[in-house]
Amino acid sequence: MTVYLLSAPERCREEALRLEDTGSVTQCMFRSVMHIAAWSEQHPALRVKSWHCKLPDIDQAI
């Protein structure tokens, strides 16, 4: 997710949410909305500007 401070909208940063198996990237985009909403409630000084889903790299799996 790209998030920014409400008090300084020009200050953006990246945050990552690690979700359990979401299937495809399309499924992740639909399912991630509730997780992003929960994250936003826990971080009231920040706003989510955008997000994207990335499936884990198979090569990195142990």
Characterization of the model:
The protein is an alpha+beta fold. The protein contains one helix and three strands. A three-stranded antiparallel sheet has the order 2-1-3, with no helix packed on it. The radius of gyration is 13 Å and the shape is elongated. It starts with a strand and ends in a 12-residue tail after the last strand.
Helical run tally: 1
Query: Structural class, please?
Result: alpha+beta
Mean pLDDT across residues: 85
Which sheet architecture does the biggest sheet show?
Answer: 3 strands, antiparallel
How many strands in all? 3
Estimated helix fraction: 25-40%
Q: What's the helix-strand series?
A: EEHE
Kindly report the oligomeric state of this protein: single chain
Main sheet strand line-up: 2-1-3
Instruction: Please tell me what the overall shape is.
Output: elongated
Rg, alpha carbons: 13 Å
Distance N terminus to C terminus?
26 Å
Uncertain residue ranges: none
Strand content: 25-35%
Which characteristics define this entry?
62 residues, alpha+beta, 1 helix
How is the secondary structure organized here?
Blueprint: E1 2-5, E2 8-14, H1 25-42, E3 46-50
Antiparallel strand pairs: 1-2, 1-3
